[in-house]
Write a structure and sequence with these properties.
There is one protein chain. This protein has twelve helices and no strands. Helices cover 74% and strands 0% of the residues. α2 runs antiparallel to α10. The N terminus is likely disordered. The longest helix is centred in the middle third of the chain and has 29 residues.
Amino acid sequence: MADDVRDDGRSRVDEARGAHRGVPAGRVLAVQLVAYLLLFVVTVGLQFVLGVEQPVVRGVVVAMVAVLLLGFQLGWPFRTGWAERFIGLVAGVLSVVCAVTPAASHVFYPAYGGRLADEGKPVMYTLVRWAACFAILLIAVTIVSFGRQMARAERSHLIRALSHCMTGAVAAVSAAGWCFLPDLVSMGAASPDDGLMTGFLAVMAVCVVFAALFAVCSVPWAREADPAEDARVPWLGIGLLPVMLCGVMIFAAAFVMQLLA
């Protein structure tokens, strides 16, 4: 019986099962708080306090989204190879491109915005365009990820590898939703004059609730994390995961505000 216990107190059964290592939950929560503060404070500060023009603000926000994507790659918290990480990174970059440029317009919608532009809702046009791109990217990522797993010579832990690849890719694609934060801030500033202040506060309250729920969920994620042995800062990746997923909430908030307008 004594032979089944190592010197450090871990049983050989636990070792064989790959017991979870976990990451510091405090760092995970701190990463989320800092990321949210930077995204909102910088956007609001540039747009209203400093009076910077909208294109400049959007460029800064896009740069911060790029930092999210790179930080997530640096702190990759999953047990996958470089191919799975590359799939997520490419999907995230394509999602950002679709959010801030009309590159996908010729495929999904007229380049000039069609009826939505004629009705004075160009923001709605960009939101609808990105929603279509979002769906297409998720379908493409699912197919590519499954094909990648089928191409592996050794298919051990197939379900885990596929789910980790998909989780990272979905987070990366969702992060592009933060590119609509300047539009949401602008609509919020105009909401008192448009009679939409109550609606804006309700929409933002829902966003805060979802962010809080993600923060609560990230604590057991941190505790049960089982990153690769060579992972550098997996707590950074787990901390950024909820922030990136909340990009969809920013998109939804801007979409609702456009519907109310």
